[in-house]
Write the structure tokens for this entry.
Amino acid sequence: MDLNALRNISYGMYIISSNKGSQFNAQIANTVFQITNEPIIIAISINKKNFTHEYIESSQRFSISILEENTPLDFIGKFGFKSGRTENKFINIKSKVLSSGCPVVLDFSLAYLEAKVVNKFDCSSHTIFLGEITESEISKSGKVMTYAYYHQIKGGTTPKTAPTFMKNETKGSVSMQKYKCKICGYIYDPKIGDPDNGIKADTLFEDIPNTWVCPVCGADKSQFEKEE
Amino acid sequence: MDLNALRNISYGMYIISSNKGSQFNAQIANTVFQITNEPIIIAISINKKNFTHEYIESSQRFSISILEENTPLDFIGKFGFKSGRTENKFINIKSKVLSSGCPVVLDFSLAYLEAKVVNKFDCSSHTIFLGEITESEISKSGKVMTYAYYHQIKGGTTPKTAPTFMKNETKGSVSMQKYKCKICGYIYDPKIGDPDNGIKADTLFEDIPNTWVCPVCGADKSQFEKEE
């Protein structure tokens, strides 16, 4: 039994948006797939704890922005590692509201789809929502970001609420390298983590969300270098 | 509304195998995805008309072989465009039988998973089967074949029973080029197709399954050249 086999399953990277009346929320997702072609039904898998789940239940609508390969990690972090319960994710990004009232994120998006929920299936921690396509547009041509690219090339990580999160994701064969903040000299020790800011012990520096900042001076991750 | 937006959804390429007692069958699929991580549940979407659907219903087991990028088109054609009702797909390929009795295809496979069905959802033409992982092995390292690679680089096509089949798939901007069999001189005219052998009118030569052979002499597609 080698559960790393699961890492060979292919996914894309998407932003799922929905609304509750005039309130908007959005989150990163990697499980989007077409189920039937007549009618065209797509499925998404959403963690019941996610704020977006509540919005989809309310409006019965969701949109899917298909992210391009060069989407910056901090843009993904904004939608993947922060909750809409404490932050309006639609501030400072390009988006639009479709005729149904459902929002759609346009930044770094090659194409988008909107769907009306026609069925849902309970899968313990997650719900599979089935949606019939109501709108679909291609914004520009380009390469899509795959989940493999996000992990292997961009060094991205997976939120604990994702279907594909693996418990050992933060423990690889990589040594527990310390990193030092070039601005203030703070040393990040992966054995300790940064528990005050939600980073548990045994978290590699590479696995800290890009939204994390130096707990001392507030510098972002790009300001850190390997500690010799 | 531009349904080509759907083509930007990322998938992999897989062979789903199952058994009915000691009988085996297998088919190509592109919709495999993890749904939850505790327990690890994966989902597949299978057309109800497919022979494999009947086998999964019977044994409540299925295996997934994750195909590598260099899988030959004719190998995919064997599992994607032929039915197990008329052909034993396990002849002349490397495979093994797991302790449950479920077969798994090993040729061109980077890794495999086996699952026991724990739930299923009816989606009109298709069934989503949810399976709890019972076995998983990595056979070798390498690049997985994505659905995009299969279509864009390998020039592969989609069976009509696939969730992602699009009606206009056979009508592109490419001209209706005729092809001639170098062995017997038969000319394939895309405006006519080869209806006796299941190739409808308006099917480009490039879109004919690689399992198709010259209706006159039985030569395979590689024996055809463009007709000036």
Residues 171 and 202 of chain A are 7 Å apart (CA to CA). DSSP finds three helices and twelve strands in chain A. Chain A touches chain B through 53 residues (CB under 8 Å). The first helix of chain A runs from residue 51 to 59.
